[in-house]
Amino acid sequence: MDLGIPLTHYLLVSAILFTMGALGVLIRRNALIVFMSIELMLNAANLAFVAFARSFEQTTGQPVFTGQLFVFFVIAVAAAEVAVGLALIVAIFRTKQTIDVDQLSSMKG
Amino acid sequence: MMQFDPNDLNSILPLVVLLGWACVLLLVDLFIPKGRKGWTAILAAFGLAISMGLTLGRAGQIGSGFRGMVVQDGFSTFLAVLILGSGLLGIALAYDYMRRMGWERGEFYPILMFSVSGMVLMAQAADLIVVFLALELLSIPLYVLAAFGSPRPDSEEAGLKYFLLGAFATGFVVYGITLVYGATGATALREIVDATFAMGTPSPLLLIGAALIMVGFGFKVAAVPFHMWTPDVYQGAPTAVTAFMAVGAKAAGFAALLRVFVLAFPLLQADLVPVIWALAALTMLVGNVIAIAQTNIKRMLAYSSIAHAGYILMAFVAFGDSAVRADAVASALFYLLVYAITSFGAWAVVIALEKKDGRGLEITDYAGLGRKRPALAAAMTVFMLSLTGMPPTLGLIGKFYLFRAVIDAGQIWLAVIGVLTSLISAYYYLRVVVTMYMREGEPETTREPWLDLTWSLAALATVVLSFLPAALFAWASGAILRLF
């Protein structure tokens, strides 16, 4: 099914999402928000992957699995990362009562 | 329909054994009573040893599996042996240390094995999908290990920082892979290189993709300017974990960089060399200069680890030059081996002086070590000399091969920067030696059998192997011949 949306539009949205994610990581100070920004970066990649796979499908006329499959891998791995990441954030919150990354500074030098 | 071929499993047999063993060990650990978790460590070491035996037993074989997604060749064998060895040494260091610090929990060892399997998979990856999976399989357990000293705030902070920056780096790698896929229509390294040759001049999409992948792995190997996490994480994580992380994660990161860039992107040489040049020079400079100001030994070794990533990156400048790249990659592998032996030894000494409450980590705490524990001080001296690159140690041989490869590649100025920064590094490495022998003090040290074995063997290897470097280098070169 071709809705007539060209590849570049998808890529543009994906690039904007990725940039927002990267900026979020650099600018935001709450560990949870930083983490969400990272997820945004991964999903930007997913979007681009699916868009590329579909455009290859249209040019070759054959089903292309690689791109679509990669997205599943990314989603699965991101879920594993969430499990570990949230556990770490909870552990930090218990000891320090804060998840502000600027206050994680017991080490200096 | 694609059929499952049992022969595919053969190509990753050591990995299958390792992962299976780790999963079973997670269950077995439940039945090992608290306080006797040493058994879990011994069982984990057995698993690693078996996997290493299998790897060595199949050393000459070349093969691939899963439709070329993983390969088995000299390169992967060399790195797998190095990584499995790091795993074994990591367990040896953790064995008594984790109990002494009050962090003894059985799941430590299976988690370490998962991380090792990710690193081994990285050495075998011949497809960007596998590179990504291996990267995550090695990183996620490492985040947990770094925070293993919980509830000590240092360790938790180290875990969270490593996690956030590691995941950030993964984002770059994934986006880079996406763009490379978009430019070439493939994720297999062989197909990517075919597609780039068909293209002639590389497209901007491919170039940006390759650059993003490099940024991502730059984080993993701690290259400047992506090194900000390294000192905090190395300092905060349990020292045994730091030792394993410094060697294993670096080896895996360089495995991915070398294989992906040498195999898939040789055509990007002209565009990427200035970038790599700058990265290597900056990494050597920043690592060595900031290390001077450190008073904490873990932090100093962290900056030293950054600096050594810079030295290895130097070899990487020649990745697309078919005349010299075999030597360059061989010298990088050789240097990884040298760094592994030396750095494990140095971290073992750090563990011998570390106290339960986190004291014993300042360089001034090493005062008087030369009188109190002459053998330990002598070993530390050997490691410091080797990290500087002075005779009679492996460090000198490693640097020699590395600088030769860089000069062969025509990068004289990079080699000059390398030599100058090595001279700078002599200042802070030798300061430790001077403190040990010239200052008065009463350092408290720990004697533990596995720990003592690790530092004494590492010191012995650092000195003895430096007299037969040719055989080792031939092994590293043999690893490369199969790569192309």
**Rg of Cα set of chain A:** 18 Å
Shape of chain B: globular
Helix content range of the residues of chain A, please?
Answer: over 70%
Give the termini separation of chain A.
57 Å
Kindly report the CATH topology of chain A.
Helix Hairpins
Number of E-state strands of chain A: 0
Question: How would you briefly describe this protein structure?
Answer:
The complex is a heterodimer of chains A (109) and B (484). Chain A is mainly α and 109 residues long.
Model description:
The complex is a heterodimer of chains A (109) and B (484). Chain A is an all-alpha fold and 109 residues long. Helices cover 75% and strands 0% of the residues of chain A. Chain A has a single domain, classed as Helix Hairpins (Orthogonal Bundle). The mean pLDDT of chain A is 90. Chain B has helices spanning 6-11, 13-28, 38-57, 74-100, 108-124, 128-146, 153-184, 189-199, 204-221, 229-236, 239-264, 269-292, 297-316, 325-353, 369-372, 374-388, 394-408, 412-438, 449-464, 469-481; strands at 63-65, 70-72. Chain B is mainly alpha-helical and 484 residues long. In chain B, helix 2 runs antiparallel to helix 3, helix 4 (74-100) runs antiparallel to helix 11 and helix 10 runs antiparallel to helix 11 (239-264). In chain B, strands 1-2 form a two-stranded antiparallel ribbon. Chain B has one domain. In chain B, 75% of the residues lie in helices and 1% in strands. Classes of the chains: A mainly alpha (109), B mainly alpha (484). At the A-B interface, helix 1, helix 2 and helix 3 of A face helix 6, helix 7 and helix 10 of B.
